[in-house]
Design brief:
mainly alpha, Vanadium-containing Chloroperoxidase, domain 1, 2 domains, two-stranded antiparallel sheet, 2 strands
């Protein structure tokens, strides 16, 4: 259980910046730094992020993250085309002379979302955001040129992703395992997105780039210890799990990318980020989240490891005499409909935390996160504190083993570092 106790992200890059210690009221709010007034932020990228995040649940987890990355890479490429600051993600075209940078950014976001979301109410929301941004830009040739340029960038991003394998990834056949340790269906139903690990990555060279290796052997002491921890702490009616641990399981159970994008909006406002800097932040984070999903699903279906619900019910047949089976055992949370190893929560959170720490130059950052349906926010003094909490919550929920959390954290750290070191770089 070492990785949850240590922050392995290379945030000393190469010298740690002064530690940030701001607080904020909620996951979408703004705070103030220690006595100084930050510059007024440019909210365009954050506003489009909020709009996209309000719509993506209708697409499902995987396609929603993909749409978010398409939008933010398009906005980023449209914005940096006007500045000699950062390298393009994909589209390195130059804008027409006199074109409006803000019109280009708004048009890039609009074109992606208006293409992806087709329902009338969704398009009305997108149109309202777009009209609001365009109303702040003086009419004329510069505005028109900016709009045309932003649309062109968006079209090239969509072309880049047109054959990425996402459309067929949800329906790849995946039969139940038959041997001890192999995943099989639970009451949650059919396996979710079995082909997503083969989707073309956004930054990684391939989906298994950061695979840390498989779970420990069923006969090992490590497996027996993790098995017992999940059985004792993660049971539906566990007398051992504390009220705080039960709360953590519920707080972190929903989709985690929404928490990190909300936090990015807080950071953008609190730090007074400019249009180019906020576009870079959201570009970095969205690509990291998109590749985290690919990495997680690649490992899940490659290793095809059973969930605690299955493992504990069949514990007497796992060839480990240290594990006692319980055919009636139930987890505190509903078992997700896909293999256990590795933890998606842990890898995604570790990747996002690493990316944000690298962006700011420090892991020490105070913030709050919220969960829909839970009135009280939770407070943190570092990004990695949230990662540790998220990982433990899945054990308390009875849906993951300790080693799955630890290995996912290592993979996520590597992914976050890789994206930051190789993409959206200063010129």
């Amino acid at each position: 259980m070492t990785s949850r106790r240590l922050f392995s992200v290379l945030v000393a890059v190469p010298v740690l910046l002064a530690i940030f210690s701001w607080g904020c009221s909620n996951g979408n709010g703004s705070g103030s730094n220690s006595g100084s007034t930050p510059p007024a932020p440019d909210s365009l990228a954050a506003e489009w992020n909020a709009t996209a995040m309000s719509l993506t649940p209708t697409l499902g987890t995987h396609m929603g993250i993909r749409a978010l990355a398409m939008m933010h890479t398009a906005v980023y490429d449209a914005v940096v085309a006007f500045e000699d600051s950062y390298s393009a993600y994909h589209v390195d075209d130059l804008p027409p002379e006199g074109a409006s940078q803000r019109a280009a950014a708004a048009a890039a976001a609009y074109h992606i979302l208006y293409t992806v979301f087709t329902a009338d109410d969704q398009r009305a929301t997108i149109q309202a955001r777009y009209d609001g941004h365009l109303s702040q830009i003086d009419d004329g040739p510069g505005k028109d040129a900016g709009i045309a340029f932003g649309q062109s960038v968006a079209q090239k991003i969509m072309m880049l992703r047109s054959n990425d394998g996402a459309m067929n990834a949800m329906h790849v056949p995946h039969p139940d395992g038959r041997q001890p340790g192999e995943w099989r269906r639970t009451a949650s139903g059919e396996p979710m997105a079995p082909g997503w690990g083969t989707v073309t990555p956004w930054a990684m060279t391939h989906g298994h780039q950061f695979d840390q290796g498989g779970p420990p052997p069923l006969t090992s002491q490590e497996y027996a210890a993790a098995y017992d921890e999940a059985r004792v702490l993660g049971g539906k009616n566990s007398p051992t799990r504390t009220a705080e641990q039960s709360h953590l399981a519920m707080f972190w159970n929903p989709h985690v990318p929404a928490k990190w994008t909300s936090l990015a909006r807080t950071i953008a406002a609190r730090e007074g980020l400019s249009l180019v800097e906020s576009s870079r932040l959201f570009g970095l984070l969205s690509v990291t989240l998109a590749d985290a999903a690919i990495s997680v699903w690649n490992m899940k279906y490659a290793h095809n490891f059973w969930r605690p619900e299955t493992a504990i019910r069949l514990g007497d047949a796992d060839t480990n005499d240290q594990t006692a089976g319980d055919p009636a055992w139930e987890p505190y949370l509903q078992t997700p409909a896909f293999p256990e190893y590795v933890s998606g929560h842990s890898l995604t959170c570790a990747a996002a935390a690493t990316l944000l720490a690298r962006y700011l130059g420090t892991d020490a950052y105070s913030f709050q996160l919220t969960t829909m349906g839970i009135p009280e926010p939770r407070s943190y003094t570092s990004f990695w504190q949230a990662v540790q909490e998220a990982g433990l919550s899945r054990i308390y929920g009875g849906i993951h083993f300790d080693f799955s959390d630890e290995q996912a954290q290592l993979a996520g750290t590597d992914l976050g570092d890789y994206v930051y070191d190789n993409f959206f770089r200063p010129l």
